[in-house]
Amino acid sequence: MEAILLVGGQGTRLRPLTVSTPKPLLPTAGVPFLAHQLARAHAEGVERIVFATSYRAEMFEAAFGARAHGVDLAYVTEDEPLGTGGAIRNAARALTCGPDDPVLILNGDVLSGHDVRAQVKLHEQADAAVTLHLTEVDDPSRFGCVPTDDQGRVTAFLEKTPNPVTNQINAGCYVFRRSAIDAIPENRVVSVERETFPSLIESGATVMGYVESGYWLDVGTPEAFVRGSRDLVLGALTSPAMPGEPGERLVLTGADVAPDATVGGGATVGAGAVVEAGATVIGSVLLEEAVVAEGAAVRDSVLGRGARVGPGAVLDGVVLGDGAVVGPGNELRHGLRVWPGIELPPTAVRFSADT
Ligand code: GTP
């Protein structure tokens, strides 16, 4: 089976990490995020993938070449970003399958453990135009929701609302009949969510919902990105691309962790990164050459390439851009992001028990 992988987004919610590296190439559990997706797609029977690229397009071919993780790869770049539907239509130029064949569409920022073969089987049994993977979430008010009838047919695509009619949401993995892709308008911006799916439903085409609620995560925010990496390291989702066995931590070759430092909770320490004596790193992602100095504590945070956390500093839920420096004694929390190359001086005030 062939697939199209959408990887052209700018990843604005993950800035500043995505200033230098597109979101799908950010190291996640030690390898580019897409390595997990390619390896899983291969395990699900996908033989060829067309990358729909736009933002920093050249970096994808440089990273994966013509074949990786058992899958043949092709690259199609948009001159201007065409949105999800426009990108699918544009990338279809490089497909080799026939008009009735199923084509899998993957989002380049979703980690999913669902059964793709079962999704394709439902699509073929129903002779559908499109079959969407739907997942059930606890709080559907944060998403648009996708109701289905008792035959599993999608009845509507509803925008975010405080009172959703179902807890099923679009999980971002679709099977399209090839001819349904060819019917998307060419050379203009199209959103599958806002335009293609609603108009298919309105026209009476068969759009099926494949409901499966196993492991699923959209890694679009810093918090979710950290969670995805942590879950892969801990083995909550298995990936054939993980370098090493699941465990409390992943320390890559060339990293230097002091014997009395604490590294755990699914943290990854990248090549050339350093965790000094007495430091604590929990559930975080340290990219190459990042440094956590003596006695510092880093939790649920991402440290960009060469970023440095000074002695005794505390980071919780923070993103440091490449080369950013947090001076000794600083305490940064709650989604704070430090842009690449910024240096925060040491704290002038020293806190003690009686201040
Ligand atoms: P944010 O800016 O943080 O919302 O991230 P994003 O740019 O990745 O957008 P979003 O998460 O909505 O995109 C969903 C998927 O579609 C991602 O895999 C994107 O890479 C991809 N995508 C979004 N827009 C385009 C586009 O115009 N062209 C291509 N080729 N892919 C796109």
Model description:
The chain is α/β, with parallel strands linked by helices and 355 residues long. The protein has 2 domains: 2-218, Spore Coat Polysaccharide Biosynthesis Protein SpsA, Chain A; 248-352, UDP N-Acetylglucosamine Acyltransferase, domain 1 (3 Solenoid), CATH 2.160.10. Helix content is 20%, strand content 28%. It is built from 8 helices and 29 strands. The chain has an 8-stranded mixed beta sheet with strand order 5-6-4-1-7-10-9-11. β2 (27-28) and β3 form a beta hairpin. α4 packs across α7. The model has no long low-confidence stretch (mean pLDDT 94). It binds guanosine-5'-triphosphate. Guanosine-5'-triphosphate is lined by residues 6-14, 23, 52-54, 78, 81-84, 87, 107-109, 220.
What's this, in brief?
The chain is of the alpha/beta class. The protein has 8 helices and 29 strands. The chain folds into 2 domains: 217 residues, Spore Coat Polysaccharide Biosynthesis Protein SpsA, Chain A (Alpha-Beta Complex), CATH 3.90.550; 105 residues, Hexapeptide repeat proteins (UDP N-Acetylglucosamine Acyltransferase, domain 1, 3 Solenoid).
